[in-house]
């Protein structure tokens, strides 16, 4: 087993992790743990863009109000204003760092870069790099991080658990490499940027989604988790049961895409005055209702009326991908279905990314800042990554130099063994059962009876997992152990919310509570 020490350990190499690393590296020695396969993180798959007030025709208060409305009464207004107000500076930082956003070449352009509009926004405020914004941002920042002398990138290990000292403070992480060798990564400051929990479900918008492992690693140290019941289902994932997941960006509807039912009729105008540009929870529920009444298993997203030239110009990545799957979207509508996309809940933090565990921070989708409330508005996700990474960096940079110490991990940490004996096929079956249970009972529409069934089935899976690997010594069983416990907490959060709000919709609790409150859970809530 090897041991290393650093000032700052960042777990996750998406937009949040890379932004933080680059902002801190002039002062601190940073270790950044990120996947060896660059396409695994959700940031890279973000198509639409980043929401910020950039046009002279837009204003901060309008972005604040749009976000509060989408969040359905559960946003922390202080977090919303903080994010929106710091958004333009974060975008300019990306521009200064060379991110190739799409320019606006129109003679009467009001801003140098093209801005599109997406669901929930009442103005064009989405800056983008064609329809592959996440890829452009990640590649640009990663090139700089790879060349920085104070940033050590570790793509040879994956983090399995966080470490604490004898006082309960986080002091780094326990990692393992591909051949099972253990590595102890000690650090004065540990930051989770591990993404969300869409992988708890069968159908997602990314090929290799996280399943909330980072959230549960934090909870294992005593961190509070908040709003886990608010899992966003993107309304339009490409429907192709034989192929990998692929997101059809919100921007497609922002530029005029129309949703059609199986007989070719629009249905959104009858559901909401904003039609296809209603917030995601409304559109996803409407699509789900249409699917339940149809025989196809999907609806259609039609952009043929935009013309081939506009489609090629605005959506080259989507067009090319659909062609590779045998679909010409200039001639035929796109078959789409809702899929798990984004976790509005996560590790509770303040505006600097601090958790309630000393030494541990969380930024990006793994965190719950209060920005999204009960439903994230389109393209506020990468904005949150940028703003809170920069805020976290400012806090750490303000730490007095003599306050940086290297504590030792507690000696009672569980040491994993890649050679631990267990049945991999059985583990895969347990994971598949968990995802099927979550998709059936804890997805777009939840019912009291279904949540009770899910709670029982997940508890049974936990018993079966312990029979496979009693101490969760193998890295794969430990990862699933984290995911399974997060699934149980998600069900509990849904059971405790006796109302329908935002992404949590139940016909059994169809009303809005008069005084909505965020949900807060800890690991103790499923250990009692």
UniProtKB/TrEMBL annotation:
Pathway annotation from the record: Cofactor biosynthesis; NAD(+) biosynthesis; iminoaspartate from L-aspartate (oxidase route): step 1/1
Compartments where located: Cytoplasm
Catalytic reactions of this protein: L-aspartate + O2 = iminosuccinate + H2O2
UniProt keywords, alphabetically: FAD, Flavoprotein, Oxidoreductase, Pyridine nucleotide biosynthesis
Matching InterPro entries: FAD-dep_OxRdtase_2_FAD-bd, FAD/NAD-bd_sf, Fum_R/Succ_DH_flav-like_C_sf, Fum_Rdtase/Succ_DH_flav-like_C, NadB, Succ_DH/fumarate_Rdtase_cat_sf
Similarity remark: Belongs to the FAD-dependent oxidoreductase 2 family. NadB subfamily.
Protein's name in the database: L-aspartate oxidase
Gene source species: Halomonas llamarensis
């Amino acid at each position: 087993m090897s041991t290393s020490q650093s000032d700052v350990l960042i777990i996750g190499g998406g937009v949040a992790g890379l932004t933080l690393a680059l902002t801190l590296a002039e002062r601190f020695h940073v270790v950044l743990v990120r996947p060896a396969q660059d396409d695994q993180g959700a940031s890279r798959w973000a198509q639409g863009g980043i929401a910020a007030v950039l046009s002279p025709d837009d204003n901060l208060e309008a972005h604040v109000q749009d976000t509060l409305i989408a969040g359905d009464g559960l946003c922390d207004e202080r977090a919303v204003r903080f994010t929106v107000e710091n958004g333009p500076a974060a975008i300019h930082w990306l521009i200064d760092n060379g991110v190739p956003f799409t320019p606006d070449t129109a003679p009467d352009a009001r801003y140098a870069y093209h801005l599109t509009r997406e669901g929930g926004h009442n103005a064009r405020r989405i800056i983008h790099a064609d329809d592959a914004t996440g890829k452009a941002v990640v590649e640009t920042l990663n090139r700089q991080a790879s060349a920085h002398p104070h940033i050590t990138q570790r793509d040879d290990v994956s983090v399995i658990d966080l470490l604490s000292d004898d006082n309960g403070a986080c002091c780094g992480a326990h990692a393992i490499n591909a051949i099972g060798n253990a590595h102890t990564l000690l650090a004065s400051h540990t930051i989770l940027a591990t993404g969300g929990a869409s992988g708890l479900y069968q159908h997602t918008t990314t090929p290799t989604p996280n399943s909330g492992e980072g959230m549960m690693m934090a909870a294992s140290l005593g961190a509070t988790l908040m709003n886990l019941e608010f899992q966003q289902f993107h309304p339009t994932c490409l429907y192709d049961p034989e192929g990998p997941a692929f997101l059809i960006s919100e921007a497609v509807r922002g530029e005029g895409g129309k949703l059609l039912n199986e007989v070719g009729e629009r249905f959104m105008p009858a559901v909401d005055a904003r039609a296809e540009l209603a917030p995601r929870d409304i559109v996803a529920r409407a699509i789900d209702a249409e699917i339940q009444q149809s025989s196809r298993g999907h609806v259609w997203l039609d952009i043929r009326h935009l013309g081939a030239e506009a489609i090629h110009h605005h959506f080259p990545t989507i067009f090319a991908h659909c062609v590779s799957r045998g679909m010409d979207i200039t001639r035929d509508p796109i078959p789409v279905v809702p899929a798990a996309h984004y976790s509005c809940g996560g590790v509770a933090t303040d505006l600097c990314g601090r958790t309630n565990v000393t030494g541990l921070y969380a930024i990006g989708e793994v965190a719950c800042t209060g920005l999204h409330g009960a439903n994230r508005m389109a393209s506020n996700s990468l904005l949150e990554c940028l703003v809170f990474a920069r805020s976290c960096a400012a806090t750490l940079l303000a730490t007095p130099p003599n306050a940086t110490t290297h504590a030792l991990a507690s000696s009672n940490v569980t040491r994993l063994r890649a050679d631990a004996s267990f049945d991999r096929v059985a583990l895969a079956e347990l994971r598949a059962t968990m995802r099927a249970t979550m998709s059936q009972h804890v997805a777009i529409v939840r019912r009291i009876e279904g949540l009770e069934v899910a709670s029982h089935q997940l508890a049974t899976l936990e018993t079966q997992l312990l029979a496979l690997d009693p101490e969760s010594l193998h890295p794969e069983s430990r990862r699933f152990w984290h995911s399974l416990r997060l699934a149980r907490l998600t069900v509990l959060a849904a059971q405790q919310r006796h109302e329908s709000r935002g992404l949590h919709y139940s016909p059994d609790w169809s009303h809005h509570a008069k005084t909505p409150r965020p949900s807060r859970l800890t690991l103790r809530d499923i250990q009692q």
